[in-house]
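Lab meeting, item 3. Inverse folding demo.
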């Protein structure tokens, strides 16, 4: 099909408009695709940032729970006077009180020198565990007296009491009507354990 010069002149403007519109449409599509890719990148970055923030929140919550748990243990140990220096005067007071309130006929004890039994690495400093062995010689009317003594010693606080051994023997003394005679005797070795924080010890 052949076009005359006049017809071509008439078609020139529409063809230019069509070409311009096609170019504009192609440019708009290219721009839209670019915007979509940028939006997808921003969305992925936002999701990643949100996941990281959630992870940080979870970690902070776990650390807070761990700190609270450790703080509860610390307060419990502090209330029992297990932390810090030995409480030898308090130990002696506890032994006197138990002997008096339980009316123990014969109670003797000797506390050895303190010794280091272990170190636990921590922050800001390590924690040292010390023990002083208390050797107890006690006269008993029956086995229950020993259990009562150990329970009250534990409840007195001032240290963590770890019983290493206890041996009960018969005294061979016969009961008389005039007085109460203990027929059993117990010998025990009990570790009195205290905890010392090196950071606190330096201050």
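The presenter then showed the designed sequence:
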């Amino acid at each position: 099909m052949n076009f005359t010069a006049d017809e071509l002149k008439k078609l020139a403007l529409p063809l230019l408009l069509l070409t311009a519109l096609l170019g504009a449409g192609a440019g708009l599509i290219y721009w839209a695709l670019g915007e979509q890719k940028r939006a997808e990148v921003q969305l992925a970055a936002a999701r990643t940032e949100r996941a990281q923030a959630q992870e940080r929140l979870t970690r902070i919550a776990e650390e807070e729970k761990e700190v609270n748990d450790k703080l509860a243990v610390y307060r419990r140990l502090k209330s029992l006077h297990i932390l810090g220096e030995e409480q030898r005067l308090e130990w002696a007071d506890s032994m006197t009180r138990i002997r008096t309130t339980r009316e123990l006929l014969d109670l003797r004890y000797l506390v050895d020198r303190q010794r280091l039994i272990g170190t636990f690495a921590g922050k800001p400093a390590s924690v040292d565990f010390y023990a002083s062995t208390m050797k107890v010689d006690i006269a008993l009317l029956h086995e229950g007296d020993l259990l009562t003594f150990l329970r009250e010693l534990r409840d007195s606080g001032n240290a963590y009491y770890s019983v290493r051994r206890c041996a009960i023997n018969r005294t061979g003394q016969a009961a008389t009507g005039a007085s109460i005679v203990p027929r059993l005797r117990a010998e025990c070795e009990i570790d009195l354990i205290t905890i010392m924080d090196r950071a606190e010890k330096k201050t």
